[in-house]
Specification:
- Helix content is about 60%, strand content about 10%.
- Strands 2-1-5-4-3 form a five-stranded antiparallel beta sheet, with helices on both faces.
- α9 runs parallel beside α11.
- By secondary structure, it is α+β, with helices and mostly antiparallel strands.
- It has 18 helices and five strands.
- It folds into three domains: about 150 residues, Beta-Lactamase; about 120 residues, no CATH class; about 100 residues, Arc Repressor Mutant, subunit A (Orthogonal Bundle), CATH 1.10.10.
- About 10% of the residues have low confidence.
- A hairpin with a 2-residue loop joins β3 and β4.
Length: about 375
């Protein structure tokens, strides 16, 4: 099947904008709008990061695009931008400004987004890998394409199950990535070691090894996004992502891929934990934070932690503040509220159940601390997260 024909069919089914650049020239794009042509030229000619087969980036405020690096004869394919949020002329103006385009196209950009699928980074990742595989196979027929899309259409393009990438089980994926976002490495270790229903992920390649590598690249991309949401610096997150994608690509033994994937997830979680704490990685700080993170559901005091670490309370309090840059009680509250945020996003537990589980003396006190640290009440935080 000719690439142009395949891409046209892809757009008709997915409603994701695309543009194909070959040797810097715009070969094909849909829909036929000036703003799409200009966006593809801007987004498709930037510097490639490493040797990744495709990459996904956020322009701003949950607006994403993907670049697929195909064989030399095929050039570069740009998918998107897609937005997880409604787009107005004003927000469209900011997106265009972010990539160096004139705000005069903001009205047309807003119309483009109204015509296009609204989606998350995970949905774009699925579509990118799906299309990369079809173009890379080289012998895809029209019938193959239609049969494949018919089989996986709802999962790849149109579902609303955010981030169910590496596994078909949305609950598994949401829980796994949320532990990264909140830097819960120890809990993630136990989670990965426990039995789970992994669901059924869409087959993205006829070759099992390639399929598993593509799924790991999906997972790496989503893990990177959750790590950035959790406070990890973009440059550091990108460095981890590129390093593991390179490891996935170079792996000769398929049996090594699972351990590489686990190592990547745990590294992201550890780095987020350190970044969210905003602390130097000294021995005292590490031991203190490890104790707190493994006893979040218990009543934590300076005296108790000092006793567990065999230190005097006064020394622990002053040394921790000096080395970490914040007081120990402040850090305890910060970690408890971060855990509360995670549970509000990933569980059906009520506010009072969460406050009791984290050993707050009352729901009212918990809500006061939560609002002081986040700016909103627990109920509003949960409602905003759901919408």
């Amino acid at each position: 099947m000719e690439p142009v024909k395949l891409l046209e069919q892809f757009h008709q089914i997915s409603h994701i904008p695309y543009g194909w650049l070959n040797a810097g020239l715009l070969v094909s794009y849909e829909p036929k709008m000036e703003v799409v042509a200009q966006l593809v030229q801007k987004l498709g000619t930037g510097t490639r990061s490493g040797d990744c087969p495709f990459e996904m980036k956020e322009i701003r405020n949950e607006t994403y695009y993907a670049r697929l690096f195909l064989e030399e004869k095929h050039g570069v394919l740009v998918l998107g931008p897609v937005s997880a949020m409604p787009v107005s002329n004003q927000s469209g103006h900011l997106v265009l400004k972010s990539v160096g385009l004139s705000g005069k196209l903001s009205g047309e950009y807003a119309r483009l987004q109204q015509m296009s699928s609204r989606g998350s980074i995970s949905q774009l990742a699925r579509a990118a890998s799906f299309l990369f595989n079809l173009l890379g196979e080289g012998d895809t027929t029209y019938t193959d394409f239609i049969e494949t899309v018919s089989k996986y259409n709802s999962r790849i393009f149109h579902d609303n199950q955010t981030d169910a990438i590496f596994h078909g089980n949305q609950e598994f994926s949401t829980e796994m990535y949320s532990l990264i976002q909140y830097g819960r490495k120890e809990e993630l270790v136990h989670f990965l070691q426990s039995p789970h229903d992994y669901g059924n992920a869409a087959l993205l390649s006829k070759n099992q090894s390639r399929h598993e590598k593509y799924m790991l690249i999906h997972s790496a991309t989503i893990a990177e996004q959750y790590a950035i949401r959790g406070g990890l610096a973009y440059e550091e997150a990108l460095s981890v992502l590129e390093r593991y994608i390179q490891k996935f690509e170079e792996a000769k033994d398929v049996n090594l891929l699972a351990s590489l994937h686990s190592s990547m997830l745990l590294e992201f979680a550890e780095l987020v934990g350190e970044a969210s704490a905003g602390m130097a990685k000294t021995l005292l700080v590490r031991k203190t934070s490890e104790y707190i993170n493994t006893h979040l559901e218990e009543k934590l005091t300076v005296d108790r932690i000092a006793g567990a670490l065999r230190l005097s309370p006064s020394y622990l309090s002053s040394a921790f503040k000096k080395e970490a840059g914040l007081g120990l009680n402040e850090y305890i509250n910060k970690r408890k509220i971060q855990e509360a945020m995670r549970r509000l996003q990933t569980s059906n537990a009520s506010v009072i159940e969460i406050s009791e589980a984290l050993s707050y003396p009352s729901q009212a006190y918990f809500c006061t601390v939560f609002k002081k640290m986040t700016g909103v009440t627990p109920t509003k935080f949960r409602n905003d997260a759901l919408h």
